Amino acid sequence: MNAKISLNKDYVIGKIEPGIYGSFIEHLGRAVYGGIYEPNHPTADDMGFRRDVIELVRALDVPIVRYPGGNFVSGYNWEDGTGPRALRPRRRDLAWQTIETNEIGTDEFQEWAKRAGTEVMMAVNLGTRGPDEARNFIEYCNLDSGTYYSDMRVKNGFREPFKFKKWCLGNEMDGPWQICSKTADEYGRIAYETAKLMRMIDPDIELIACGSSGSGMNTFGTWEATMLKHCYNEVDYVSLHTYYANYEKDTKNFLARTMDMDHFIKSVVATCDYAKAVARGKKTINLSFDEWNVWYHSNEPDDTRPKIERWDIAPGQLEDVYTFEDALVAGAMLITLLRHADRVKIACLAQLVNVIAPIMTRTGGSAWAQTIFYPYMHASKYGRGTALLTKVECDRYDSRDFTDVPYIDSAAVYNEEKEELTVFALNRSLDDHAVTTIDLRSFEGYDLCEHITLTHDDVYAANTEANPWQVTPKSNGETKVSSGVAHSILPKLSWNVIRFKKI
Ligand code: AHR
Q1: Same domain, yes or no, for 340 and 395?
Q2: pLDDT tens per residue across span 439-448
Q3: Residues 115 and 214 occupy one common structural domain
Q4: Which residues have CB under 8 Å from 501's CB, separation 6+?
Q5: How many whole angstroms separate alpha carbon 139 and alpha carbon 151?
Q6: Which band of pLDDT confidence, cut at 50, 70 and 90, is reported for residue 276?
Q7: Looking at ligand 1, which atom is closest to the CA of residue 350?
Q8: Could you tell me the pTM of the whole model?
Q9: Residue 478 annotated among the catalytic residues of the structure
Q10: Domain total for the chain?
Q11: Residue whose CA lies nearest to ligand 1 atom number 9
């Protein structure tokens, strides 16, 4: 198969905000306890955080982490995770049916974030709670001192305010599973009032309103339009969530699922712009794709792991073991996000540790990188700068749910400061490599720096504690540059990172 990728330095989609490479840690399963925090682990630091996990998070260069949920946040009392630990209550977490000990809360998590070199994207509870608690919480986190809650933080040992910039106004409030879910009108009103109060405390924050929990929701579209009618002028982003599955074991169809993601993004952009017209809005609302990933292995009927008991502490929930084909889908999702970098300004791979995550740990044991770790790491490391328009000419196929799926999917990122161009490319073909040309004429003097590939003969190959290096990238891709054109071979079923640099 032949393919042609055309791009030009001057044809720009938009600046890539670092927040597009964010992630997510929820008080769920072993994400916090046994994940980032395990005081008895041999690598634990002075606060009980696992150093081996921090090292892996740092390798991913994660710019921002959403916290503390997720479904969890809709029943969470932020005060429980602050102040003297001995006084913190144990509570039933109704969202995941576990016991939350509150050993870790905002006080500790903001310190973990510093150690992991990341920022916190905080969420407020708009399920069981509302504007009053949200205003108190932001006062606790972001005000210097001299008021009740800011002084409480100082008394708890934190002289400097945490200064969280980005705040989520609840989570998936349209979903019937959500604790105290709402209609679009109810949510729009509470989001408006909460945002108003939070901004009175700290006018410098950015606020994310809940969009639909997924494009499959019955209310998708009308939810966004209705809730924005109430809060358009008070919020900055609308959230999107999506998880893909391959229960049918149909790789061709699975790899095409990003066609749906693309459509989802375009629909939310259109709805935000419609709401702008209705609100006579001056600003443009951007998108926060703050939950995206593959998620289904831990839900498969033949999953043989013991079932979780209710009201346990930090049981192993949602521990998907990712395969090679999942890594390809994760790569395709990253390409899709990059192609919408003009409007998607935040995105969070859900989640970061143990729970549907690129990083896995064994409690008391090692930490390792799952297959999806690699495309995420490549995009985060090499995908900083400006997203360029790419035109891909290649063969297409039809699958069970999609038609006209391009075999080759690609996004290009230009880093002017570093004088680097990176082309991310996915070959969806199960049978053929793609002999591909990339037009580099607008990049005079650029030559190949490295062509990284992620390939495997077995789509179900996975990285486990016993065999953590089954699926790993190699710097062995075939690319040659001559007369302003790069000639690349994209192996069948492969993720490619082709890096060029000015010489
Ligand atoms: O990421 C796991 C869960 O998926 C989150 O708690 C929720 O927001 C979504 O449904």
Answers
A1: no
A2: 999 999 999 9
A3: yes
A4: 418, 419, 420, 421, 446, 447, 449
A5: 9
A6: very high
A7: 1
A8: 0.97
A9: no
A10: 2
A11: 70
